[in-house]
Amino acid sequence: MYIGNGHYCYSNSAAMFLLSIGEHVSPQMFEVLTGVGLGAMLENGKTLFLSMKDPDDGINCAFNILGIDADEHQQADCLEAPFSLLKKQMTRAPVLLGPLNMGELTYLPNHKHLNGADHYVLGYAMDNQSIYLHDPAGFPYVPLTLEQFKKAWKADDIPYCKGHFKYWSSPKKTHSLHDNEIYEKTIMYFKKTYQEFENSNLELIGKDAILHYAQQLRYGPITHEMIDHTTYFLFQLSAKRANDFAFFFKNKATNLSKLKIIQAETLGLCHYLSVNKEWSQLSEKLQTLADIEDRFRSELFKTAI
Description:
The chain is of the alpha+beta class. The protein folds into two domains: 7-171, Cysteine proteinases (Cathepsin B, Chain A), CATH 3.90.70.10; 204-300, no CATH class. The protein contains ten helices and eight strands. It has a six-stranded antiparallel beta sheet with strand order 3-8-4-5-6-7, sandwiched between helices. The chain is globular. This is Butirosin biosynthesis protein H N-terminal domain-containing protein.
């Protein structure tokens, strides 16, 4: 099993958030419980994501499965950031902040190239000029002026943003669950997620979305946006997610675990082909990936709880 880095910003931040109340939940486990890495969809009919749930929804679902209650905050308008309330709450415990626009996080050396990319961090202190963050992208104890942080926190350019200045505060454990109970709740949640997604008004999801993207890669044109998306984000993140799903299912649902290992291996090869611009071979491998996704969904609904 793989252990290493990945684009797990909200899961790493949530793990820190929960650790502030003595709850030890690994980012790998939290990522699985969000359900964000299930399924597939096309954004705006052209950009493939191997997911079907927004991170902020997934965070709330993972908290629910773990028996965690946290206060969720957001605003309909972006005129005034709630800094006074935020500062008051941070005197009691750290807060989970996001989504943020990475293009406005000026402590990131390459922030100018990241506008519109979403991000989550842990806020642990504030004064009248700055907020102090643990950024799981490799930047602990980093300060940012409140003026600059407000620009990132508005999240205007984040496609799934449902409000502005979103964060979670005051986490508390409401009830404890055994591992079997967590597993059963998670399987029920995964099935519900697939059902809700399939009943949505999105045209291309799951296997069909992957096959459509395969056709885009085969017949082109291959845009710079597509190259950046597949080379720097899509396949490496999805391979790690599949690996962590495989570990979650390992001792409970052997067939699901095996399918996720096969999926992870296929995604790793997809990443290699993308970096080397082998678009025709990548298109063929995506057809294999579409079949694996279909098999996983079918096997999930056969799984008894």
